[in-house]
Amino acid sequence: QVHLVESGGGLVQEGGSLTLSCTASGSISALSAMDWYRQAPGKQRDLVVTITAVGATKYGDFLEGRFTVSRDNAKNTVYLHMSKLKPSDTGVYYCHAFQHPRHYWGQGTQVTVSS
Fold first, then answer.
1. How many other C-beta atoms lie within 10 A of the C-beta of residue 19?
2. How far, CA to CA in Å, does 53 sit from each of 16, 70, 99?
3. 49-94 pLDDT, tens per residue?
4. Measured between alpha carbons, how far is 87 from 70 in angstroms, rounded to an integer?
5. Rg (Cα) of the chain, in Å, rounded?
6. Cα–Cα dist 100/79, whole Å
7. What are phi and psi of 42, to 5 degrees?
8. 6: which of 15, 96, 105, 106 is 20 to 30 A away, CA to CA?
């Protein structure tokens, strides 16, 4: 079983930056992929970025190049670096991991961007 814990969310001003962390209970190198999703109230959950075990990444088109994913395998942690934040970035950000046939989700961390 894999447990995921997100941290780093909070309240930031429009145009500011924030870095989220997702720490897994085991080695993230054993997972096929790790992802960040986000969901605003009343909205669908959208994929922010995915990063595979071999380092391939895919970002959502709506991010406009403002977000970057990185990982530290020694710390079993994936990071999401966010900059030039907009109010539309507000939502709960979830860490997700996949290892066939199972999916794992963190509890989410709230990001609020004030206008």
1. 13
2. 30, 12, 10
3. 999 999 999 999 888 899 999 999 999 999 999 999 999 999 999 9
4. 23
5. 13
6. 22
7. 75, 5
8. 15
